[in-house]
């Protein structure tokens, strides 16, 4: 059985050498090259066509995100695992969005890294559990606000009436509320939309698709 051919990309020589030593101990894995930045990584991918690239993010000359984009555009069959110490969610999203098959922290156990490489080579997607939790948490936090700024169903109805040009009295009659209650809802709407008056509220609601008309 032929070995998995790996390219290790990192601007720190110690990390490149350490990863190479660890991975070459695996019977079915062979490190065929090392690169100190994204530019060299792209050149080596063109010449050597590795199966999997272990890609650092922050490097001089060309960072890992740009290099990954170039590699995936030119050789989509080459699989890329982003390997970094940085845990910012934006990097995960960027890397996966441009086609990287995995994202792992450098602190991962060598055996887990080897297992991850095999998984990605078989067509799987690899992301560390804490990253998955962070992404799920952020999506959960952003979803309600991105849809309607947290407006309640009744506030949404009042906002629809504002967009239709109804007065407070007309809104109250339509929704079977008192005028005082309508005023309270409007104050809450202004606060949630971060606007000062009725015109701003209606404009923002229309621009963001919160109201239909």
UniProtKB/TrEMBL annotation:
- Boundaries of every HTH luxR-type domain copy: 144-209
Q: Which GO terms describe its molecular function?
A: DNA binding
> What SMART domains would the database entry show?
HTH_LUXR (SM00421), REC (SM00448)
Keyword field: DNA-binding, Phosphoprotein, Transcription, Transcription regulation
Domain Response regulatory as annotated: residue spans:
5-121
Task performed by this protein: May play the central regulatory role in sporulation. It may be an element of the effector pathway responsible for the activation of sporulation genes in response to nutritional stress. Spo0A may act in concert with spo0H (a sigma factor) to control the expression of some genes that are critical to the sporulation process.
Gene3D superfamilies per the UniProt record, alphabetical = 3.40.50.2300
- Give the matching PANTHER family: TRANSCRIPTIONAL REGULATORY PROTEIN NARL-RELATED, TWO-COMPONENT RESPONSE REGULATOR
4-aspartylphosphate PTM positions: 56
Organism per entry: Sporotomaculum syntrophicum
InterPro entries hit by this protein: CheY-like_superfamily (IPR011006), NreC/VraR/RcsB-like_REC (IPR058245), Sig_transdc_resp-reg_receiver (IPR001789), Tscrpt_reg_LuxR_C (IPR000792), WalR-like (IPR039420)
This chain's protein is named Stage 0 sporulation protein A homolog
Q: Which biological process terms from the Gene Ontology are attached to this UniProt entry?
A: phosphorelay signal transduction system; regulation of DNA-templated transcription
């Amino acid at each position: 059985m032929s070995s998995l051919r790996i390219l290790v990309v990192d601007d720190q020589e110690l990390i490149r050498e350490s990863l190479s030593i660890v991975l070459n101990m695996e019977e079915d894995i062979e490190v065929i090259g090392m690169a100190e930045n994204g530019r060299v990584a792209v050149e080596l991918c063109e010449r050597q066509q590795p199966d999997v690239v272990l890609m650092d993010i922050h490097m001089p000359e060309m960072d890992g995100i740009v290099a990954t984009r170039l590699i995936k555009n030119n050789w989509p069959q080459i699989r890329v695992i982003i390997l970094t110490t940085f845990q910012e969610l934006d990097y995960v999203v960027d890397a996966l969005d441009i086609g990287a098959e995995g994202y792992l922290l450098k602190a991962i156990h060598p055996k887990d890294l080897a297992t991850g490489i095999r998984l990605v080579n078989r067509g799987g997607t690899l992301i560390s559990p804490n990253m998955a939790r962070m992404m799920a948490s952020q999506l959960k936090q952003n979803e309600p606000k991105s849809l309607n700024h947290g407006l309640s169903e009744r506030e949404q109805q009042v906002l629809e009436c504002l967009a239709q040009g109804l007065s407070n009295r007309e809104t109250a009659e339509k929704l079977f509320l008192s005028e005082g209650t309508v005023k309270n809802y409007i104050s809450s709407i202004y606060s949630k939309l971060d606007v000062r008056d009725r015109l701003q509220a209606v404009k923002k609601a229309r621009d963001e698709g919160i109201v239909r008309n």
